[in-house]
Amino acid sequence: MSKSEKLDFDPYDLLEVDEDATENDVIKAYRKQALKWHPDKNPDCKEQASAMFLKISRSLEILTDASARAALNHLRKAKQEAKKRFEHLDSKRRKLREELEVRENTVNLKKNEEQQAYKDLASEVFVIFALNGFSFFLNIILFYIERLRKAGSKILQQEREKVEKKIREERMPASSSHLDFVLKIKWDESMTNVSEELIREQFEKFGQVEDVIVNRGLKKFAILSFASEEAMSKAKAACDDSAVPFRYASDKSKERDQTTETTAKSDSTNEYLDRTTLKGHLRFESDILSRMREAALKQNATKQ
């Protein structure tokens, strides 16, 4: 922003905060307005949203810089006082004009009354020039904004990143955790008391476990769904280091074929080929998880 540009908005009004608002209040107000006017959330009026988002960002820059904010407060106070004086003089000017119109209709208009009228007019002109003189304070504010633009506002950058992160989280599909953070484990045949409770007890120390499906068929294995990638990575590392009595199941195509026969014998050749990619394998594991969950629910319903 160059010094020749005009500050055509009030940062306090734009963020809807008072002059005595704290920095935390200003940041909270920025987050609210930034989420409201982010261009990606206003596709129907993207140009207007972009302009508003820029003004909101500049408002945060001004109100979080002590020097720029002090200059802005000084300017606001001076304008308010000048406005009151101008309104008072404007009221006197209207009254004087009415009096002059009456006196002009008379033949004996006194010379001193004309001189008084010119004095009042001169006072009005003085106020107008005084208002224009506030460009000095405006230049001070523009100087601080230019300095912030060059140096980079850390607060603005951090808050923008938080807004972008929140928007990305809102766009993220709800089922992404089951597709991205799934781990398949095995255990030795000598372990006969493996249960969902035992598996949770062993793996929840690495992070939140959203779901556990245990297959007790001919090929014994279990599928765990974690709430985060970090938890899944720690669990896999524990299996590799023998820190838990389980081992990470390999991704050999032969094992996937055997698992497919026990869960869905009607899978097509195209689905098998799709599983040879990482994305296809994740969908494959998610499908197994869903089917085994449905089978467990049906089994519980039958027992009841």
Automatic annotation (TrEMBL):
<dbReference type="GO" id="GO:0005681">
    <property type="term" value="C:spliceosomal complex"/>
</dbReference>
<dbReference type="Pfam" id="PF00076">
    <property type="entry name" value="RRM_1"/>
</dbReference>
<dbReference type="InterPro" id="IPR035979">
    <property type="entry name" value="RBD_domain_sf"/>
</dbReference>
<dbReference type="Pfam" id="PF00226">
    <property type="entry name" value="DnaJ"/>
</dbReference>
<feature type="domain" description="RRM">
    <location>
        <begin position="178"/>
        <end position="251"/>
    </location>
</feature>
<dbReference type="InterPro" id="IPR001623">
    <property type="entry name" value="DnaJ_domain"/>
</dbReference>
<dbReference type="InterPro" id="IPR036869">
    <property type="entry name" value="J_dom_sf"/>
</dbReference>
<keyword id="KW-0472">Membrane</keyword>
<feature type="transmembrane region" description="Helical">
    <location>
        <begin position="125"/>
        <end position="145"/>
    </location>
</feature>
<dbReference type="InterPro" id="IPR000504">
    <property type="entry name" value="RRM_dom"/>
</dbReference>
<keyword id="KW-0175">Coiled coil</keyword>
<feature type="compositionally biased region" description="Basic and acidic residues">
    <location>
        <begin position="250"/>
        <end position="259"/>
    </location>
</feature>
<dbReference type="GO" id="GO:0000390">
    <property type="term" value="P:spliceosomal complex disassembly"/>
</dbReference>
<dbReference type="GO" id="GO:0005737">
    <property type="term" value="C:cytoplasm"/>
</dbReference>
<keyword id="KW-0694">RNA-binding</keyword>
<protein>
    <submittedName>
        <fullName>DnaJ-like protein subfamily C member 17</fullName>
    </submittedName>
</protein>
<keyword id="KW-1133">Transmembrane helix</keyword>
<keyword id="KW-0812">Transmembrane</keyword>
<keyword id="KW-0143">Chaperone</keyword>
<feature type="coiled-coil region">
    <location>
        <begin position="72"/>
        <end position="113"/>
    </location>
</feature>
<dbReference type="GO" id="GO:0003723">
    <property type="term" value="F:RNA binding"/>
</dbReference>
<dbReference type="InterPro" id="IPR012677">
    <property type="entry name" value="Nucleotide-bd_a/b_plait_sf"/>
</dbReference>
<keyword id="KW-0539">Nucleus</keyword>
<feature type="compositionally biased region" description="Polar residues">
    <location>
        <begin position="260"/>
        <end position="271"/>
    </location>
</feature>
<keyword id="KW-0963">Cytoplasm</keyword>
<dbReference type="InterPro" id="IPR052094">
    <property type="entry name" value="Pre-mRNA-splicing_ERAD"/>
</dbReference>
<feature type="region of interest" description="Disordered">
    <location>
        <begin position="250"/>
        <end position="272"/>
    </location>
</feature>
<feature type="domain" description="J">
    <location>
        <begin position="10"/>
        <end position="76"/>
    </location>
</feature>
